[in-house]
Amino acid sequence: MTARSMPTATALYDIPGPLTRRRHFLYGVGSTILILSLVGWVIYLLFDTDQFTSEKWTPFEYKGIQELLLRGLGNTLKAFGYAAVLSLALGALLAVGRLSAHRPVRWISTLLVEFFRAMPVLVMIFFIFVALKVQPLPALVAGLTLYNGSVLAEVFRTGINSVDRGQREAAYALGMRKTQVTTFVLAPQAVRAMLPTIISQLVVALKDTSLGYLITYEEFLHAGKLIASNLDYDLPFIPVVMVISPIYIGMCMLLSWFATWVAKRQRRNPKTEAVDVAPAEPGTLLPGGQ
């Protein structure tokens, strides 16, 4: 065996040898066959139950149904937009509270974060809608904001604490106050480092907007349910799900792709760029210099 073909070791693991690579290849082939078999079985069931007949897809050509779906999609994006902005604001506020030097503020912020993180989103939405008698859109946005804002608060706090301690100490040495250090030194670096995680949490908020149909909010899933309940053939929900699901998945994948792109860009392209430095020139000599 030549030196080039011999497996070498790294700091984390040993390079797999021929037997291990062959075993991993067999695992991959077996998993691929299993997934393809499952997909084929699902497609067979769809054809066997006549889900692709023109009778079941013609209703989606009607202008009224298309407008209903578009209106539901618009309501979904509206609820997500409100929830995303308010979650970011609440997360920043709670993160600042948890990092506060005042013990009561820190305790109250910690209690709120832990409580809303542990509370199921659906329970909060139902409580706001039923007990507080709030309209569907504000109830949905409030529930999503409380949960996602508490999660983002931990993301922000972790990001700020992950900044190198020397930068904090250097800022204090320059005479900056704690608010200035957090605002101008720590927060920009924390957001830059945690941006992929923040966007990933917004994907969760986008998916959770589908809970709005349980409180009669006319979002995308509610529109699909309304369409399916008015179709007069067997299994009407399957074609509706086949229309709605790719759009939901596409929106979530778009946000996930954006998070991945941001992460790669942050690793590849530093925030500061190289600048040209002027060549050294003779300066004024100090008194007594030669």
Radius of gyration: 28 Å
Helix percent band: over 70%
Query: Alpha-carbon distance between the termini?
Result: 67 Å
Low-confidence stretches: 3-7, 272-278, 283-290
Rough shape?
flat
Q: Helical region count?
A: 10
Largest sheet: none
Order of helices and strands: HHHHHHHHHH
What structural category characterises the helix and strand content? mainly alpha
Record field, number of beta strands: 0
Q: How much β-strand is present in the residues? A: under 5%
Mean pLDDT: 83
Give the topology.
Layout: H1 18-48, H2 54-57, H3 63-98, H4 103-118, H5 121-131, H6 136-162, H7 165-173, H8 178-208, H9 220-229, H10 237-268
Helix pairs in contact: 3-4, 3-6, 3-9, 4-6, 5-6, 6-8, 7-8, 8-10, 9-10
Please describe what this structure looks like.
This protein is mainly α. 71% of the residues lie in helices and 0% in strands. It has helices at residues 18-48, 54-57, 63-98, 103-118, 121-131, 136-162, 165-173, 178-208, 220-229, 237-268. The radius of gyration is 28 Å and the shape is flat. The model is unreliable at 3-7, 272-278 and 283-290 (pLDDT under 50).
Give structural attributes.
10 helices; 290 residues; mainly alpha; disordered N terminus
In brief:
The chain has 290 residues and is mainly α. Helix content is 71%, strand content 0%. It is built from ten helices and no strands.
